[in-house]
Write a structure and sequence with these properties.
Radius of gyration: 28 Å
Structural class: mainly alpha
Number of domains: 3
Strand content: under 5%
Largest sheet: 2 strands, antiparallel
Helix content: 55-70%
Amino acid sequence: MAEQNADMFGRVGVIVGTTAKLESLLVASGGSGAGLHEKTESIRKRLPEDVEKKLHFIASVRNRAAHENPEFSTTEFAAFEEAVAFVKPILENLAVTAAASPEEAIAPEKPKRRKRSAAREQGIAVERELLTEFESFCRLTAFIPGLQVVFLARLFVYAITRSAPTLAAALLEISSITLMIEAIRSGKGFSAENPLLLAGGILFLSVYFAGVVMALRNRRVAALPMWTALTPGVNLVYFLYWSFIAIHWGSLFTGVLMVFGNYLGWRFLDAEKYRPMLIALGVSYLIGVIAGIFFSPSEKPPVPPTEEVPAEPKPSGNTTPTPGN
């Protein structure tokens, strides 16, 4: 395991270092922008089509290595090295040409960005301000006895934000299967007198197609093959697994502890055990205070690990001629 981790981090280091050198070559060739994608776009008119595609492929691998911390297979890493070996000499020649004849260098194109209207920008600013005020209020309630229920509700919402669609799909699919089983057990068969079977079937198909859309949009889970999300019935495994890895368990566990402490407090109150009641409610309150200090609900929950392997671009007919051809 230690050797595998060392190998993984070594590959990530090679990827980040190599792309930094390619960015320097692009800058020397007249490129500009925030990253490899933008620098490539800024001088795309001076690049052959196959070089441009491979640079975007390299940039995708670099972003994946820097932000998602994935495990690169030998095949993926070999494809990256092959793309680098293809574009590097071409960029070096282009940089030398730009340095020797700066007047021939074409002014880099500015990356295109979507323009927003002033009204839209103002609306976004107002939405962010309101959201910040709401989050500040929710966090403040963590320190006020009696109002901690607001902070508790926010904890649960935060915990299931990422998993809500697949969790709802799993519950609906289980409900549809239950309806169909009860319809079959009733002995009415496939008839108009058996509406449960029709309702269960429609619900099952609706959830299936919704699951296909979710699987294709969210990318496939790294630990599961894609067919688990596309097979009726088996997709329940995909729903449950995605929900499991997408739940923010820290927030959920904290909320459950607070609920359990309040439940014990009210039970002790009914039994007229006031000291245990105060201890239970006090512990629940302290858990809420600690969560309010360290928890920042304004931040988005972490994205679950997914597998999105960028496809290596196929060589096109437009290749850069080499000396002697």
